[in-house]
Write a structure and sequence with these properties.
2 copies of one chain form a homodimer. By secondary structure, the first copy, chain A, is mostly helical. Chain A is about 70% helix and about 0% strand. The termini of chain A are far apart. The structure holds a DNA duplex (30 and 30 nucleotides).
DNA sequence: CCTACCATTAAACGGTTGTTTCAAACAGGC
DNA sequence: GCCTGTTTGAAACAACCGTTTAATGGTAGG
């Protein structure tokens, strides 16, 4: 049995999560983790087999509930109404992110920085698992979005879903950068704001009629190009 | 004088760029770089002072032209018409990305993966420089966007600009993940598609009237339901 | 020719990495 | 109690890291 109080395993997970989110996986040594967790160095290899094993567990612990909530939300939504609104579907996808960030027991705001670093970090086998999980969710939402948006070709919906993921991931992940650029500190509670502000933004984007390949350029651009200094 | 043919310096830069984009900076050793470049290990420290120096040069070489093109595009746009259209401004911001990705001499598609890894990687001093450069560009575009979008509060414009950056960065950066999820390989030439498809998407988002704080919540979907405080 | 000077080479440096070892401390079942 | 299996502790392991050194090759200027 592992956990009534903060077991060794839990403390390692918490410390690793904190450091991974702050510095990235590759730059975080096991010694830094075990020092922060006040745990012996060997405990990591004992409990998780290897650093890779620890990394997988840290991410899995957060990503699994997130994706499960997303799928559950959509399921519940479709059971309630055969034709949910676009906004409902989008909120079902985005709100679990805010929920996670709000609950310190589930990682709090730290977990969002983790998500942003997911892709750059991680070794091959874990990356494959992660992509597989994510694919299931995105496929499911793609189908749901196509249903609420007849008239938009599925391929367009797929692209726009990618845009949504990017717009959602980037601001919460690159918090440090966002702060520097905006001059304003981003409160952890502002993850709600991200969702609230992003929802109408992407909703409008999803509804754009397809197939207008080029937005009309006012007057033909006479001299198209740049000062090539190559 | 360094460069008539592929000098040592150039080969190091090319190899480093390739490996940084593929594996990330932290996971890429100088030995891997010099092996790929078929160059002596010490050459890196000789030409760039340190690994950090090399990292900075690799990124600077690509980011500087990108940001310069963005600023130049906007300048030229505003000189031509005092009130450029929203689409024009957005294209001025996004098109240099596609241009870079199209030109192998400027890094080609590889450079996009670099951009995506920018934030997670990099040490403090370089990060500060990068954020400063980026901030200048974003501030400039923020002002331009506010001018084309009177009626949208500047703070909303700022958020939406963040969304744009995220939506633009993510799909081109996480190419591997996108491929896995979409099942389709993303051709380097498709960076054009990203821009073409993203432009109308975000344009619609930017035009959304502000101040609709909550999209209708769960039970009542029909009613606009504009209750909630700000 | 010789002398500076820059570029390149091979080898080694100290430090940190993830991982392992082995003994000690601990738990609960009989 | 004693015993079995699990968990922790301090120390050591080999491998790799970024960096430095010292000697070399090559080339332009005097």
């Amino acid at each position: 049995m592992t956990s009534l109080l903060d077991s060794t395993k839990d403390r390692i997970l918490a410390a690793a999560e904190e450091l991974f989110a702050r510095t990235g996986v590759a730059r975080t040594s096991l010694r830094a983790i075990t020092a922060l967790a006040r745990v012996n160095l060997a405990a990591v290899n004992y409990h998780f087999g290897s650093k890779e094993g620890l990394v997988e567990e840290v991410y899995r612990r957060r990503l699994e509930p997130l994706n499960r909530a997303r799928l559950l939300n959509l399921e519940r939504l479709e059971r309630r109404a055969r034709k949910p609104s676009l906004e409902d579907v989008l909120e079902a996808f985005m709100s679990p992110v805010a929920q996670l960030a709000r609950d310190p027991a589930q990682g709090g705001p730290t977990v969002m920085r983790l998500l942003g670093q997911t892709h750059a970090e991680a070794e091959e086998p874990f990356k494959a698992w992660f992509a597989g999980e994510y694919k299931r969710v995105l496929e499911r939402y793609h189908a749901a979005l196509c249903r609420t948006l007849p008239g938009i070709p599925p391929e367009d919906v797929r692209w726009r879903l990618q845009f949504l993921v990017g717009a959602l991931t980037y601001p919460v992940a690159e918090r440090q950068l966002v702060e520097l650029v905006s001059g304003e500190a981003m409160d952890p509670a502002d993850v709600n704001q991200v969702v609230e502000r992003l929802l109408p933004f992407v909703a409008a984007g999803f509804r754009v009629p397809p197939g207008t390949p080029k937005p009309a350029r006012r007057a033909t651009r006479r001299r198209p190009k740049v000062t090539r200094n190559s």
